[in-house]
Amino acid sequence: MAAVVRSAERLRTAEEAVARLGDALAAVSVKLPSLGVDVVSLASEVPYPLIELGRCNVDTALRLAAVLRGPEADE
């Protein structure tokens, strides 16, 4: 039973991380359509599951790169 609780807690933590990342990306007008929890990694013994950032189109990749570089990169 403890393993089930631990797995549920790990999934909840990962889903919260996905939601927070999705919100942060949305705040800068970036949407990663495949953002989610990598369910295969839930079976491993690592502390947390992996977050699948997924695939995106070229426009989204360029917008994400610009946001990560920040406004001083344009100068």
Shape call:
elongated
Structural class: mainly alpha
Give a quick account of the main beta sheet: strands, pairing sense, barrel closure. Answer: 2 strands, antiparallel
What percentage of amino acids are in beta strands?
Answer: 5-15%
Measured distance between first and last alpha carbons: 56 Å
Query: What fraction, in percent, of the residue positions are helical?
Result: 40-55%
User: Which spans of ≥5 residues are poorly predicted at pLDDT below 50?
Assistant: none
Radius of gyration, taken over Cα atoms and rounded to an integer in Å: 15 Å
Please, how many helices?
A: 2
Overall pLDDT, averaged?
86
Number of strands: 2
**Which H/E pattern describes the elements?**
HEEH
List the strand order in the largest sheet: 1-2
Structure in words:
The protein has 75 residues and is mainly alpha-helical. The N and C termini lie far apart (56 Å). It has a two-stranded antiparallel ribbon with strand order 1-2. It is elongated and about 40 Å long. It is built from two helices and two strands; from the N terminus they run αββα.
